[in-house]
Design brief:
44% helix; 6 strands; 2 domains; Dna Topoisomerase Vi A Subunit, Chain: A, domain 2; two-stranded antiparallel ribbon; Helicase, Ruva Protein, domain 3
């Protein structure tokens, strides 16, 4: 492999990252090679270690170094509720709120037939097994409020319609500190529809 092919190979590898186009990938490549070779070595080792040591938790599907993650093993978590999210980053955001203390299931995506992502690709059989083998009394559908996220939530709700489990969907509406004047009409309409008694 010639030097230029090695360079192009690194640029192509960096382009797979979200939000990184050809120019950004090229800048990153030159930065790593010219200014931070130690950083490049650390990135390489960290990626290699992650690929070798991380697996999916057999219960919630999150990434873990052990067969079951710390959240699933915790005796302090509410074992009667399970919050279903699309990605591990969604779980992290919910954990940061300190408002939920139940269990999770991470789909690792959402239904998107146009992209070839169906029920098997988002591990729904694993979710069904998890819920059947537990004392779950409520599933909280916390998928994104996109067309695909809403379709995924509806599909999961239908899966459990004949089971004695309460299905809820996270609410949407005005952001904390938001002013009505600056909120989009869709969000405002949803806030009106999902209003609560005070």
């Amino acid at each position: 492999m010639k030097k230029i092919e090695v360079l192009e190979s690194l640029v192509d590898a960096l382009k797979i990252l979200p939000g990184v186009g050809p120019k950004s990938a090229l800048r990153m490549t030159y930065f790593l090679l010219q200014r931070n070779r130690n950083g490049a070595q650390n990135i390489s080792k960290s990626i290699s270690n992650a690929l070798e040591q991380l697996m999916h938790c057999e219960l919630c599907n999150n990434f873990s170094e052990k067969p079951q993650c710390s959240i699933c093993l915790s005796s302090k978590r509410d074992k009667n509720t399970i919050c279903i999210v699309e990605m591990p980053t969604d779980l992290l955001m919910l954990e940061e709120t300190h408002s939920y203390n139940g269990l999770y299931f991470i789909l690792m995506g959402r239904l998107s037939p146009l992209d070839g992502i169906g029920p098997n690709e988002i591990h729904l059989s694993k979710l069904i097994k998890r819920i059947k083998n537990s004392n779950i009394k409520e599933i909280i559908l916390a998928t994104n409020f996109t067309v695909e996220g809403n379709a995924t939530a509806q599909y999961i709700k239908e899966l459990f319609k004949d089971v004695d489990i309460k299905a809820t969907r996270i609410a949407r509406g005005l952001p904390m500190g938001g002013e009505i004047e600056y909120v989009d009409s869709g969000t405002l309409a949803q806030a009106i529809v999902e209003r609560k008694t005070i």
